Amino acid sequence: MALALAPCAPGRLGYYALVCGASLPRSAALGALGVLLSPPAGFHAGGKLGRLAGLLSLISSAGSLLVSASALRTAREHELSVSPADGLRGRLDARLAPRTVVFASGKGRQFNADIYAPTGGHTSRVGVVVVHGGAWRHGDKGENAPFSRWLAAHGFLVADIQYSLATERDWLAAVDDIKAAISYVRQHAAELNIDPQRIVILGRSAGGHLALLAAYTADVALRPWRVVALYAPTDLVQLYQHARGQQGRDLREGLHALIGGPPADNRAAYQSASPVQRVPGDAPPTLLIHGRSDTSVPVEHSRRLYRILRRAGARAELIELPFARHAFDLVPEGLWACITAQALLKFAANTQPRARPGG
After folding, report:
1. φ, ψ of residue 172 in degrees (nearest 5)
2. pTM for the whole thing?
3. pLDDT band at 21 (very low <50, low <70, confident <90, very high)
4. Are the C-beta atoms of 30 and 60 separated by less than 8 Å?
5. What is the distance between the alpha carbons of residues 129 and 174, in angstroms, rounded to a whole number?
6. How far apart are CA 191 and CA 236, in angstroms?
């Protein structure tokens, strides 16, 4: 699904406030300071236009600071080590380059994975299989390479994979491809220097939906150690019914291709392909991260799955990001991306994921 950033204030002002607030917190502070320190004559020189520009700049900076403060408060609530400086540099190493391997082939197709090996002499011996988004019809491995490099720099082995898109086959094929990737990483664990029993699936958006299905339907031999879903749809009937606007049309077209038509024609298939309907009694520990301002896939998708997991006795954690929209982690320098990365580090190291207060 495409990056969707919408305003928290009218017009483009809110857009820039959200983007800057999540990605450049210091620039917001400097912008506000600049406006406050500008001589009054500067406003009068431009007449009404100058005063309006100054006011908008101040409001935008205030919005940016509000978003940044909310991000840092969320990090503290979940005991994550994130600071405003992280939102600027993102602690990413662009020098880490992957090698590409074939992890599955057949029927005239082969599926590749970009392998990012841990660097700097440190390894957590944890493997992370990354599943891209794209409304089930689009996308490819490498869509968030900076995040994969960040994980590798912090000791993870990352396999960023391709899978069957809905335009090629059906959702079962895509889930099977993810399971094949888990099998490949597990079979090559010695070569990759990881623990074969410590494999995490990380999926974004539609990829998060598929990652959850793969984790919850896999046989014991292929079951991942952990599953992480970012802004993932978990109830496809609900997603279809609430899709609106251009993004909604894209989602519905993706669901038509994935399932073979609308829910009215095949409700059972929609339910079968919904993670909320597939939670097993022994579900692997699950981390859900979702923006509260996501209009493409509302946060209720993660909230509902979280409640079902907790009722089933599964270990689960839900992190809700105030003001964050869909695809919030695709800005690698942003605080939302840093919170996501730190949450994954903690989740992979923690044998008992912490329940959300009141959950």
Report:
1. -65, -35
2. 0.81
3. very low
4. no
5. 14
6. 38
